[in-house]
Amino acid sequence: MEANRSQNGIQQLLAAEQEAQQIVNAARNAKMARLRQAKEEAEKEIADYRAQVEYEFQKKVAESSGDSGANVKRLEIETDEKINHLKNEAARISHDVVGMLLKNVTTVRN
């Protein structure tokens, strides 16, 4: 009877050990599945973020290249205005400059 009880105790210990091993394996499998899921979610988030940043970049490029024509036009207008201003100033003072040059060239100093 004592041997039967010992044998029964050993069988219970073996069964408990197997059950514990199954629980550990199930936990390990669940952990691995969760890690795979987390990795997939992270990769999706990264792809979404990259797509968003790329979209914003392309949008800025399109806006700036669209504005380049406007910028060229604005610069041409400003340049024309400055040229006209310089021509007007030159025409306004050219008579005085020519007179001053003639006076200095024709004046004899001892």
From TrEMBL:
The keyword Ion transport applies. One of its GO terms (molecular function) is proton-transporting ATPase activity, rotational mechanism. Keywords: Coiled coil, Hydrogen ion transport, Ion transport, Transport. Residues 10-59 form a coiled coil. One of its GO terms (cellular component) is vacuolar proton-transporting V-type ATPase, V1 domain. It comes from the Eukaryota. It holds the Pfam family V-ATPase_G. The keyword Ion transport applies. Gene3D superfamilies: 1.20.5.2950. Subunit of the V1 complex of vacuolar(H+)-ATPase (V-ATPase), a multisubunit enzyme composed of a peripheral complex (V1) that hydrolyzes ATP and a membrane integral complex (V0) that translocates protons. V-ATPase is responsible for acidifying and maintaining the pH of intracellular compartments and in some cell types, is targeted to the plasma membrane, where it is responsible for acidifying the extracellular environment. Catalytic subunit of the peripheral V1 complex of vacuolar ATPase (V-ATPase). V-ATPase is responsible for acidifying a variety of intracellular compartments in eukaryotic cells. V-ATPase is a heteromultimeric enzyme made up of two complexes: the ATP-hydrolytic V1 complex and the proton translocation V0 complex. Belongs to the V-ATPase G subunit family. This is V-type proton ATPase subunit G. The lineage of its organism: Eukaryota, Viridiplantae, Streptophyta, Embryophyta, Tracheophyta.
